[in-house]
Amino acid sequence: MWRAIHSPAIHLVFYLSIIAWEIANTLLLWWGAVRLVRALRLPASAFNAAKGVPVAALTLSLLMWLVAFLTVGGEWFLMWQSPNWNGQQAAFRMFTVVGLVLLILLHPDAESQP
């Protein structure tokens, strides 16, 4: 297949870059969670302002699952044809969960909420 990459060094670079992306994402998500917890008892405007880091982290996570796994792995390298492993369903589940969490987080908080 013309799309195949036969260099083990390139495989390793892609593998390590995905791991680095996930580590960076994890650190950003933890940082965002700490910011949200610290802003929990503050006014709604301060809590909304603290959402920047977790929104960025969740967006990066969405991009990872969509671009790296669903688009590149699934469509470019035809992962769905593999008899051994097809990660498209797992990637779509992760994309969906992260997307739902992002949508919930993007909902603005107001002072009058119960």
Distance between the termini: 58 Å
* Radius of gyration, taken over Cα atoms and rounded to an integer in Å: 18 Å
Q: Helix count? A: 4
Strand content: under 5%
Q: Given the helix and strand composition, which structural class is it?
A: mainly alpha
Number of strands: 0
Shape: elongated
Average pLDDT over all residues: 90
Q: Helices and strands, in N-to-C order?
A: HHHH
Helix content: over 70%
| Spans of at least 5 consecutive residues with low confidence | none
Provide structural commentary.
The chain contains 4 helices and no strands. It has 114 residues and is an all-alpha fold. Helix 1 (8-38) runs antiparallel to helix 3 and helix 3 packs antiparallel against helix 4 (88-106). The mean pLDDT is 90. It is 71% helix and 0% strand.
